[in-house]
């Protein structure tokens, strides 16, 4: 038996999220079916964390236990042949028996992209949330540092969450603007959030609040006030899923999963 | 009556090319239907040139004659509301009565993108031709300068072309490599070709030949030999359409259409 770990990239547009559902139209369902076709085994894969319907992954990490004798170097090519064009596996490696994609993860980074301006970029329309009116990116930027550190993120957690503790640590948050595209008269705003774990909808609620700050509906100070008050009802709306991408997952011992 | 000119971007994946066809599923058909819905007029639009099925445009230019009183500033917003998400119009402006998107054009630039390496970029899978084995980009680069200038491009023209003369002028050709993506272990190769006009499939046949040079199936000198011999049968295959994008159209008097 081997514990095999892989990097998975997916365009989440066509799927009902990562985790298995009765619809069978999730990334996990598709991956498990492909592994079954390849090996004849019915296995359960573990991921670094679920992503919601419409959310993408540049670099999700999965692992699973297999008794298949297929050599490591063959796994990716063989699985990619069985997978649809919007899911790609790469970098198969054997890991310790006790490696667990989620529990062993040191930190995860999500990226959220807003396109702000006159026209969306149609080639990235499924990966960018389009905002047609100007945003105050300076106010947005200045609202972010308060999120760094260990905090109770109840205000930025879906009320449907079933987690016992809402305390998480954010290591870094950044906001970066692309140059204005002269044809589209719009530019991309990338928000990267790195933490030791994320609550249900946490990045999307932070971004929904951030957009309200950018719109001038709230002051830049609102972020820290909302954080302190621990009440989901006071934060902004949950931002649309398609702007979100699981960007990177890092593991202990500086082992970079990607 | 006004002659109105617009920039059009489209993702050609879902369409049967630019030019009207009985299928009605072309960019021109969709644009003319949207204009009819908006104005009640049945108009014919002119473009800077047709693009084949699957080919994209960052910046196509169209014009049409209309008697609609809709103010210029309203056209784009109104049309974009009626257009699907994979077609966007921008930058509506009134032009001289004798302006013609194709005949008035000074030069056009096409970009072809090859992704070379282990894995495709799934977020650009419809805009990049994926080549899984290495390409000799130095040989490819050194084969390009011979194309610049006024030449008879019969070798790089589909035999289905009905043009009288195959003489065209190429002003510039360049090949540019993106840095290697560490996760995908692949990189994008962008080929830009600027000319005063293009024959049917011309860029795609040049790129098909270029790929054979990159694969080592032909020497870098082959490009000039094929050009000189004026025989389509001696050039490489027509490269897949989805890697091609109409990049820019420039007009006389330094009037940049985009």
UniProtKB/TrEMBL annotation, chains A, B:
- What is the recorded function of this protein according to its Swiss-Prot or TrEMBL entry? Formation of pseudouridine at positions 38, 39 and 40 in the anticodon stem and loop of transfer RNAs.
Q: Which domain of life is it from?
A: Bacteria
Family membership noted in the UniProt record: Belongs to the tRNA pseudouridine synthase TruA family.
By which gene is this protein encoded?
truA
Enzyme Commission number? 5.4.99.12
InterPro entries per UniProt = PsdUridine_synth_cat_dom_sf, PsdUridine_synth_TruA, PsdUridine_synth_TruA_a/b_dom, PsdUridine_synth_TruA_C, TruA/RsuA/RluB/E/F_N
Could you tell me what this protein is called? tRNA pseudouridine synthase A
Indicate the residues that form the catalytic site: 52
Q: Which reaction does it catalyse?
A: uridine(38/39/40) in tRNA = pseudouridine(38/39/40) in tRNA
Top-level enzyme category: isomerase
Q: Which HAMAP family match?
A: TruA (MF_00171)
Which organism does this record belong to? Paenibacillus baimaensis
- Annotated ranges, domain Pseudouridine synthase I TruA alpha/beta: 8-101, 147-252
Under the heading PANTHER family, the entry gives: PSEUDOURIDYLATE SYNTHASE, TRNA PSEUDOURIDINE SYNTHASE-LIKE 1
Q: Name one GO molecular function term.
A: tRNA pseudouridine(38-40) synthase activity
Q: List the keywords (alphabetical).
A: Isomerase, tRNA processing
Key word tRNA processing present in the record? yes
- Could you describe the subunit structure of this protein? Homodimer.
Which positions are annotated as binding substrate? Answer: 110
